[in-house]
């Protein structure tokens, strides 16, 4: 377990397992969790493993940035806090995509806000029927982060990505597979078996060939485009969260006095 207890990393039979561990807040993203996650990904990169599974404790995979934490930061400090949060999220996303071995997402519940980026960084993703993906930015008053504009349009097409975000439309588990966000839809009781099957198949492959394949899917020039897009999201997020509209939106979302 990490010092803050917000993530855990273990190696079992040559496979790394990173677990988000803030279930009482739906694994929502705060600085300590993201810093710990980055450290765990760095540990995974050095662990000599053949695959990594990213999972989460509790009913949700992760509900993105903790809106209450944003709201509780004094107004004059929100921009700096937001910059740190989104910057750390971007670092985590890029660290995951840079790993030379397969990264598998185990999604048992909601993925909202910026946490989508952690899933988009995975090579294979298994979801249960309870899982869904939803942005919430236009409801809360934020600007998109986590790859909703930088990465998702490439995956599902710009018209769908635009529609989902402007209407805050939920992408259900079946759609997430049909649209290419997830790889497989499986009952919760079969989730671990599905992932075990993938791991067994991958164990018979040549690691250097897997690494070469991953590099071809994300060559340096394409990775640079991703990094630039994520940074543009961070800058826009920071500018928007300092606005009165964002303050009012957070208060409304949290049902607190503005």
Description:
With 258 residues, the chain is of the alpha/beta class. It has one domain (7-254): 2-enoyl-CoA Hydratase, Chain A, domain 1 (Alpha-Beta Complex), CATH 3.90.226. Helices cover 49% and strands 14% of the residues. It has 12 helices and 9 strands. The strands form 2 sheets. A 6-stranded mixed β-sheet has the order 1-2-3-4-6-9. Helix 3 (78-97) runs antiparallel to helix 11. The protein is globular. The mean pLDDT is 97.
CATH superfamily: 2-enoyl-CoA Hydratase, Chain A, domain 1
The level of helicity is 40-55%
Largest sheet features: 6 strands, mixed
Proportion of beta-strand residues: 5-15%
Summed up, the helix count is 12
What is the C-alpha radius of gyration, as a whole number of Å? 18 Å
What's the CATH first level? Alpha Beta
Oligomerization: single chain
Give the overall form: globular
CATH topology: 2-enoyl-CoA Hydratase, Chain A, domain 1
The chain-level mean pLDDT equals: 97
CATH architecture: Alpha-Beta Complex
| Uncertain stretches of 5 or more adjacent residues | none
Spatial order of strands in the largest sheet: 1-2-3-4-6-9
Give a quick rundown of the structure.
With 258 residues, this protein is of the alpha/beta class. The protein has helices at 31-45, 67-72, 78-97, 116-120, 137-140, 152-156, 158-166, 173-178, 191-203, 207-217, 220-241, 244-254, and strands spanning 7-12, 15-20, 51-56, 103-107, 111-112, 124-127, 132-134, 171-172, 184-185.
